[in-house]
Design brief:
CATH architecture: Alpha-Beta Barrel
Order of helices and strands: EHEHEHEEHHEE
Structural class: alpha/beta
Strand content: 5-15%
Number of domains: 1
Shape: globular
Distance between the termini: 34 Å
Radius of gyration: 16 Å
Number of strands: 7
Length: 218
């Protein structure tokens, strides 16, 4: 199903994928081996996604690096104009002070910097006023496969989240919008298959809110 076919205010969306291109190959991510077509979200698709969202907070990433989208600032402006609070996670490779300022000026509320791939650190930047900017190093278990993933919860040591709970999709029907406007069930649904068989292997990270993804290390 496409966002263009969804009824207004009918879906809980915790992530909108701006692109599934990435410039990193982290051990905890299926990049670059997933089979799904590559691309970048268009403004019309973003608008349609927001129109069908019940919630008003969303993260602009999924299996890709948001900073690779040349019109990311415009997408943020559109989301903010439509009343949505947005943030995203990044590996920081394409982040410089000037772009950080532009992202804040566009209306970005928070940015989550993953330090693992390229060693980019928070201390390299002067944090613009009004932008929540945090860094995070994933605590990946040593037995995590190098190029496949069951789910983030399957390979992260997260006892504070209660272990094997029902997944976020089955519990509250949170979904992901992919760059082409189609839906995915969750961070486990790499290919956008929407197959509930995926849930059989997931350890069941339960999202309490769209922003909760960015705080899984407490």
């Amino acid at each position: 199903m496409s966002v263009f076919d969804a009824a207004p205010d009918s879906r809980k969306v915790y992530q909108i994928e701006t692109t599934n291109w990435c410039n990193a190959t982290c051990t905890y991510c299926p990049q670059p081996t997933h089979a799904r077509k590559r691309g970048f979200i268009e403004e019309a698709t973003l608008r349609a996604a927001i129109a069908c969202m019940e919630n008003k907070v969303v993260s602009l990433h999924h299996f890709g690096e948001p900073l690779l989208h040349k019109k990311l600032e415009r997408l943020i402006e559109v989301a903010v104009e439509l009343g949505v609070t947005v943030g995203f996670s990044t590996n920081g490779k394409g982040l410089v002070q000037a772009r950080l300022e532009r992202l804040r000026d566009a209306g970005l509320s928070w940015l989550r910097l993953h330090t693992d791939p390229f060693g980019v650190r928070l201390k390299s930047f002067a944090i613009p006023e009004g932008l929540e900017f945090t860094e995070h190093r994933l605590l990946v278990k040593s037995d995590a496969p190098k190029k496949e993933m069951v789910s983030f919860s399957g390979y992260l040591d997260l006892p504070q989240h209660g272990g094997a709970q029902r997944c976020s999709y089955l519990k509250d029907s949170w979904q992901v919008v992919l760059w082409d406007g189609s839906f995915a069930l969750c961070c486990h649904d790499v290919e956008g298959s929407q197959s509930l068989d995926l849930c059989k292997d997931c350890d069941g990270y339960v999202f309490n809110s769209p922003r909760d993804w960015g705080n899984y290390d407490g």
